[in-house]
Each structure stands twice: as C-alpha cells, then as structure tokens.
Design goal:
Oligomer: single chain
Radius of gyration: 26 Å
CATH topology of the largest domain: Molybdenum Cofactor Biosythetic Enzyme, Chain A
Number of helices: 16
Number of domains: 3
CATH class of the largest domain: Alpha Beta
Largest sheet: 6 strands, mixed
Strand content: 25-35%
Strand order of the largest sheet: 2-1-3-8-7-6
Length: 415
C-alpha cells in the first residue's frame, strides 16, 4: 500500500527553509506498514497543487500534504482543495471555539483572518490542531485519502500522531509490518557490514536488513513482513541476541535512540557527572548533551578552549606541552580532559582538539585530524582520528565519536 508526501511552499523551493517534515512523516507511515513511494516539494500555486493531485490520485492510496494553510493571502491550499473536491467553505463552530480559546490564553486579539481559519471545506473531515490555528483536512477521493496539514512541525507532528496515524489504521487494511532498529556507533558502514556478514547471510528469509548510515552512526533496521509478522518480536530478538555476541561494543541502543540520550541515561544510572573541554568541536558536544531534557542532573559545563591561551589559562595545559607537541596532540588533549575534571569537579570529562578545516592542515596533521580524550578518576584514554568531509561533517563526526568513547570508557569497554 503506497503513500506520497507533498510539501507545499515557495520558501522550500528557494532554499529559505529546509524540509524536515517529509522524512519525519515517512518514518511514521513506514512504521505502520505504508510504503512511501514518492516525496515532492511544489510551489504554493493552484496549478501545481491540482496537477500534483491529478498525477498521484489513483496511483497511491494516501497523499499527505503539508504547508499552505496559514492566514495570509499567499496560503492557497485550503481554497484550492475546496475547489478541487467541489466543496464550499463553511464555518466549523468547534474549530472557531478552539481558535478563540487559543488567542484568549495568550492574551492576544483575534483578527478576521484568524477567524476565517475556522472555515473548512464541507466535504472534508477537519483535524484538530491543539498547537496552532489552522485545522487539518482529510478528503476521500475514490480510493485515495488526501490529508492536508499545517507545515509548521510543532503543529503538524501532534496531528499526525494523534489523528492521522490512528485514522489510517482504522480505514486501511495495511499488511502487518514489524520494524526494529539497532543503533551502532564507532565503526563505518562498510566495516560493519564485513563484521556481521555471516550473521546477515543467515537471517531468516522473511527478515530484511537495511543499513541506514549518518555521520558517526549506522542504524541496522530489521523488518519482518507477511507470515513472519506474527512471530516477529521473538524472531527479531533472537537475531539481536546473536548480534550482541558479535559487536557488543558498538551497539548502544534501539529504535532511533540518540547517542546523547544513551550517554545521559548511563550517567544518571551511575549517578555520575560529565564536563567537556572543546577546541575543534566549538561547543557542539555540549550542545548535543544539553539537548536532552534533564541533562542538568549530570552535565557540569564546558570550556571552549579554542586558543592556546585559553587552554593554558583555564585548563592549565602546560605551555611546554603546547610548544613541544602542538595543540592537536595526544598530550595536550589529555591535559585538557584532566583540566576539565579539576576545574568543574565532574566524574568524567571529554576533550577534543583537531583541525576541522578547510584550512590549517599540514602533511603531518592534515585537515580532519582530531584527537579525542576522556578522563575519569585516575584514568585517561585518548585516540586520534582522520575524519573526512567538510568542516561541519568533521565536527559532527568528532562529537559523535567523543560521546561514544566516553560511553565505552564508563562501561569499561576500553582501557
């Protein structure tokens, strides 16, 4: 059973904003057994919207539209859909009441354009929006369900989870599909594939494996279909148990668990704290760690020691170390980690020093060279990496690797 996702808005097409909705919606649809066969971005114009609906209707069973439902004149989607389905706009009193309440709670005056958002096509089912003023709309066109939602992610996501997904499960006979994602870190995709080749080759016929890499992390997605779906949970768990015997040090969690969340949970379990001393990563590790709610219970703080002067004065890195070995070295990075422990009185610390590029590399230390050190108690561990790619990618890979090393250090998976 196929679905298509259509994002509407000139701001996407000119690169003013990035479409993050499509990937998120695709994951939700895939999780209930729908196959997303197409994603497309189109302009907020009558011709593009209607031609896209004409092309997709009948070819897919579900069309998800996001965007173009705001209160301004350039948001045309609602009127275009009303015309397309031969509907007239009528005032929905329940939606109007919610919009009035929305403005009242915020102490703001509701103007006419806001009131008009309660007008919906009489041939659709209106979808509740608890986080904004634009309702969603669900149309049925022969064998195709057309669902239109706001493009603002914090309005769209609850609508998908609370109304769209439950609704699709009710009206569609979707073949049962079971997914389980195994999160791995610390080994590139090609090396990982080699390490688990025999395991992969011996998977049951109705279990399918997909490699889903992103910087520093490879997700292994197991999917059970058809008759296997009934016994999928046990079958998948049996395979995970086998995998844990092959690459235990690289598996940190399941089902898209963020590495920073996994690290945070481990620190909370240990009742331990961490601090960071960052040079080439420029505070990105601190940003990732503190993106997790509740991180204040285990994260002490960061010193972004970009210059040698800051390394020496704030982290007490010896000037002789800097002069003899250079900032991008094992000796200096370990000294940074130890300095962070002392300054912030944390149980563990992470330090990074490297050359993110595009300039600054040498033959001995090319761009992408990064030293990562972790410390805790009386122990330190450090390792050098040669990351490839542009500056942002080097920073991202360094940050992920640093958190992964600390996790293994705490679990005593490395010296």
């Amino acid at each position: 059973m196929n679905a298509a996702i259509v994002t509407i808005g000139d701001e996407i097409l000119i690169g003013q904003i990035t479409d993050t909705n499509s990937g998120w919606i695709a994951r939700k649809l895939t999780a209930i057994g729908l196959h997303v066969s197409e994603m497309v971005s189109i302009s907020d114009s009558t011709g593009h919207i209607t031609s896209t609906l004409d092309r997709l209707s009948g070819r897919v069973q579900v069309i998800i539209l996001t965007g173009g439902l705001g209160p301004t004149k350039d948001d045309l989607t609602k009127q275009v859909l009303a015309d397309y389905f031969g509907a007239r706009l009528v005032m929905d009193q329940d939606i109007l009441m919610r919009i009035e309440e929305f403005f009242s709670k915020r102490g703001r005056k509701m103007i006419e354009s806001n009131r008009l958002q309660a007008m919906v096509p009489d041939k659709c089912t209106a979808l509740r929006n608890d986080h904004g003023t634009a309702p969603g709309m669900w149309f049925r066109n022969n064998n195709t369900h057309v669902i239109s939602m706001p493009g603002v992610p914090y309005e769209m996501k609850p609508m998908v989870e609370n109304e769209v997904i439950p609704g699709l499960k009710r009206v569609l006979k979707i073949p049962e599909l079971v997914h389980k994602t195994i999160m791995t870190q610390g080994v590139p995709e090609s090396y990982l594939a080699e390490m688990i080749r025999d395991w992969e080759n011996n998977l049951p016929e109705c279990l399918k494996l997909a490699y889903l890499p992103r910087p520093g992390i490879v997700r292994l997605r197991l999917t059970a279909t058809g008759k296997c779906a009934e016994e999928a949970q046990k079958m998948i768990q049996d395979q995970i148990d086998k995998l844990l015997g092959i690459i235990p040090e690289h598996i940190y969690g399941y089902d898209d668990l963020l590495l920073e969340k996994s690290l945070g949970d481990l620190l909370k379990d240990k009742k331990a704290t961490v601090s960071t001393a960052e040079s080439c990563t420029g505070g990105n590790i601190a940003r990732l760690i503190t993106s997790i709610p509740g991180s204040s219970s285990y994260y002490k703080g960061s010193i972004i020691a970009y210059s040698n002067e800051v390394k020496a004065s704030f982290l007490e890195v010896g000037p002789k170390l800097l002069e003899e070995f250079g900032a991008v070295s094992q000796q200096v990075t370990e000294a940074m980690a130890i300095g962070a422990l002392g300054k912030m009185k944390s149980d563990y610390s992470i330090a990074t020093s490297g050359i993110a590029g595009p300039d600054g590399g040498t033959e001995e230390k090319p761009v992408g060279t990064v030293w990562i050190a972790v410390a805790g108690g009386n122990n330190t561990y450090s390792r050098v990496f040669r990351f490839g790619g542009h500056r942002e990618l080097v920073i991202e890979q360094s940050s992920i690797m640093a958190m992964g090393i600390l996790r293994k250090f705490i679990l005593e998976m490395i010296p």
